[in-house]
Amino acid sequence: MLSRGFIRLLRPAGVFQESRSGFKSIYSLDKIYPKSEFDYSANVEKGLKEKALKSEEFHGYIPLEDLEISYSRSSGPGGQNVNKVNTKVDIRFDLKSVKWIPEHLKAQLFEKHATRITKEGQFWIQSEKTRSREFNLADCLDKIRFIIRGLDRPAPELSVEDQEELAARARKAARERLREKREHSMKKGDRQDNFEL
Length: 197
Prior knowledge:
The protein has seven helices and three strands. The chain has 197 residues and is mainly alpha-helical.
């Protein structure tokens, strides 16, 4: 009696692959909905891109084709794996030419985050938070979104009570600092020799 594995060895390669790849069930989505488009992610991304380019505010959409993404070796934890795998992510993009950041936010980025902008006008950010390249890329994109959304958010106005509380804390901290300074001065004075024989 021959085993199935032995029969597979005798059969020419690719016989089952051709017949299986050509078969489609009557319940396959292509047959049930013949005129539908099944790449849902492309439609969602296309809609987000159109919305981001038309709008005067930032919606969180960052097109990857506008970014220069580079990977390098991380300096974080990971044992020997750190020396073998490029998990650190550096992202750069030309701040003047991107269309998904509104102009008023670009001006604020140049003002408030000048240390993140190179001489060539590229915004630069990096992440080596995890041992995974994909998670570090997602972390970089989240950092960019957080920075841009932080610019768009107005600073909260303090109420009169909050201002008084902050002033009271500052006065208390100053009193405590002066008290510690006085104690330290007295301690130093006690160490000196003031004895006359």
